[in-house]
Automatic annotation (TrEMBL):
The lineage of its organism: Bacteria, Bacillati, Actinomycetota, Actinomycetes, Kitasatosporales. This is PQQ-binding-like beta-propeller repeat protein. Residues 1-26 have a biased composition (Pro residues). Keywords: Membrane, Transmembrane, Transmembrane helix. InterPro entries: WD40/YVTN_repeat-like_dom_sf. Residues 27-52, 102-114 have a biased composition (Low complexity). Coiled coil: none annotated. The keyword Amino-acid biosynthesis does not apply. The chain crosses the membrane at residues 72-93.
Length: 536
């Protein structure tokens, strides 16, 4: 493998170990672009790939300087990468600095029971079925927290299943999508507060919300098999009401409305789709600008967050070079651009501000995670030893650039999950976005998996999952030193079995409560779990 050339506007980076190549793959748990949105997807089985070394972007393969043991590990990974074509995308970092592994601190006293407004009793929810007959806390042990409630549903749907990908927690309401319906449940007791049927398939949504608890979804323009994903709706998640409805303009002859992704920040949101992308106001739905430009570099996707917006553009040169553009979210005017080397593209946006990007080369199968400065210059490449899950494919996922992979970003820290070669244990690794170095590592423990839930306020909230019949935990990890504190110990007994069965789950931790939900149902007329809540 040869090191890719530096982009024209970037100085050569300092030497150091780089990043493992990995072929772009479909995002974890979801079908590829244009695939059946109803299908229940099995978890991917990530495989190790070849290890490059070198500065800035991934370099040629080969053992790094500094010791035979580390070189042997890298060569083994390279061999495995050649022999195995996996369905998951992984990369391995190599670095000289071994960050410390902080010891877990003693658990803090249980927080007081979180408050929540009383629910509006509209009946018994959405068909809890057998769940109502089960005492979820029957086997709870001293010191463990409680299963608050469980929602199950019994529905008959098409053979491919029923989508249920949306989950939001807004104030005292947790909202879940189910087919063509959005349902709001009281966080305290799970009673249904409202039920909103939009009548056609929800074909795109975002986990992001405006400050007032509103979000935007896209629905199909009818129920026929050839219906297009061209209708936008504003949804008030607190009240359970629709706002405006707008039809998407066709941005090009290739804009067929097959699928879309949405990204929202402040009062603006972007709708990305094959053949066109456009940016609109959340409050009115009015279109502000599009990515269609007659020449130069044309944005194919926009990513929004923290009041900022980044465009991922393809340039009209012979190499179809890719460019990252910082744009004004209201006018679309570019404030800076960052040109990638020829052959490289953005596979995922881990953060918009600060800009943290997963980039890859489809031809050489190289991959890197880089950060950019506030004015669009190369800041650092992340580097550390381990196998890190990527699960991102730049537009090959129905969830877009911002919603793939087990990672989180807060402030100057990137959190990535590394998994042991046996696939049975994992650890969380915190990277300093400014230097690219690993700051600390936190091991999940024997046969346990650690998954990021949210990062905010200088700490990561993570979920520790053991497996069938063994309850999990919620912990916090401090960004500065990895100091750990147990937030919740989930209950043993019947609740633990149900908890373990949430595989490709949506997870939220808000106001001392932990929510898990499925992203699709079989729709076979049998009782199926939908949403579960835990608390004090």
């Amino acid at each position: 493998m040869t090191e890719p050339p530096q982009p024209p506007n970037q100085p050569p980076p300092p030497s150091g170990y780089g990043h493992l190549p990995g072929p772009p793959q479909p995002a974890y748990g979801y079908p590829p672009q244009g695939g059946n949105p109803y299908a229940q997807q099995p978890p991917t089985v990530p495989q190790p790939l070849a290890q490059p070394g070198g500065p800035g972007f991934p370099p040629p393969a080969g053992p790094p300087s500094g010791g035979r043991r580390k070189g042997a590990v890298i060569v083994a990974a390279a061999v495995a990468g050649v022999l195995v074509l996996g369905t998951g995308a992984w990369f391995a970092f190599a670095g000289d600095d071994e960050p410390k592994k902080p010891a877990a601190q003693a658990s803090a006293p249980a927080d007081p029971k979180p408050a929540g407004s009383p629910s509006v009793d509209k009946g018994d929810g959405s068909g809890n079925g057998a769940a109502e007959q089960t005492d979820l806390n029957a086997g709870r042990k001293p010191g463990e927290d409680r299963a608050l409630w469980l929602k199950t549903v019994k529905m008959q749907g098409p053979g491919a299943g029923i989508p249920a990908k949306g989950q939001w927690v807004v104030g005292d309401t947790v909202v879940k999508t189910l087919g063509t319906t959005l349902i709001g449940y009281a966080v305290t007791d799970g009673k249904e507060k409202w039920n909103l049927d939009v009548h056609t398939e929800i074909c795109a949504l975002t986990g992001q919300t405006a400050a007032d608890g509103k979000t935007v979804i896209a629905v199909k323009d009818g129920t026929a098999s050839n219906a297009s994903c061209t209708q936008l709706k504003l949804i008030d998640l607190k009240a359970g009401k629709e706002g405006w409805t707008k039809a998407l303009d066709k941005e090009s002859i290739f804009d067929g409305g097959i699928s879309a992704t949405i990204s929202l920040s402040g009062d603006t949101f972007a709708v990305n789709r094959l053949g066109g992308t456009s940016v609109h106001r959340v409050s009115t739905g009015d279109k502000l600008f599009t990515g269609n430009v007659p020449e130069g570099c044309q944005p194919t996707d926009y990513a929004a967050g923290n009041g900022r917006m980044l465009g991922m553009a393809m340039c009209m040169d012979n190499d179809h070079t890719r460019e990252v553009q910082d744009v004004d979210p209201v006018t679309g005017k570019k404030t800076w651009t960052y040109r990638l080397p020829a052959g490289w593209q953005v596979n995922a946006v881990y953060s918009v501000s600060p800009a943290v990007l997963d980039i890859g080369n489809r031809d050489t199968k190289q991959r890197a995670v880089i950060s950019l400065t506030a004015d669009g210059k190369k800041r650092a490449s992340m580097g550390a030893e381990g196998d890190f899950e990527v699960n991102c494919d730049g537009g090959g996922s129905t969830d877009g650039l911002q919603y793939c992979g087990d990672r989180a970003v807060d402030g100057d820290t990137l959190y990535l999950r590394a998994t042991a070669k046996d696939g049975k244990t994992s650890e969380m690794v915190a990277f300093d976005i400014g230097t690219g170095k690993a700051r600390w590592r936190h091991a999940a423990g024997d046969k346990r998996t650690i998954l990021p839930v949210k990062a905010a306020g200088g700490q990561l909230i993570a979920y520790l999952h053991t497996g069938y019949d063994v309850p999990g935990e919620l912990i916090s990890l401090q960004a500065a030193d990895g100091g750990a504190k147990t937030l919740m110990r989930l209950p043993s007994g019947p609740a633990a079995k149900i908890e373990a069965s949430f595989l490709s789950a949506k997870r939220s931790f808000e106001d001392g409560r932990f929510f898990m939900s499925v992203d699709s149902l079989n729709g076979d007329g049998k009782d199926e779990k939908l949403l579960m809540a835990f608390g004090k």
